[in-house]
Amino acid sequence: MWTVPTTPFQGAHFARFPPALIEPCILAGSPAGGTVLDPFMGSGTTAQVATRLGRKFIGCELNPKYVELHELRRTTVGMPL
Q1: Which of 6, 24, 54, 55 qualifies as a cystine partner to 50, CB 3.0-4.6 A?
Q2: Does residue 41 fall inside a structural domain?
Q3: Is residue 67 part of a domain?
Q4: Tens of pLDDT along the chain (81 residues)?
Q5: Which one Pfam family would you cite for this protein (predicted)?
Q6: Dihedral through CA 57, CA 58, CA 63, CA 64, nearest 10?
């Protein structure tokens, strides 16, 4: 069991994961330069963490509201397409 504090994020997906929860999973499950798949991308927190850790990222999201939110976050932090 991991204890990870959460913080609110304006307009965030209802099931947002804190980066501190995602990071150990990516480090344990993919090599540097590997690809991380998130089939339920939401606002893109997993994409942001994967990119920061030197992984490529593939994500899918059906809800246009969350796609827009991810695009805003992506351009704000300078994540590649």
Answers
A1: 55
A2: yes
A3: yes
A4: 667 776 666 655 566 678 899 999 999 999 999 999 999 998 888 999 999 999 999 999 999 998 888 888 878 777 666
A5: N6_N4_Mtase
A6: 70
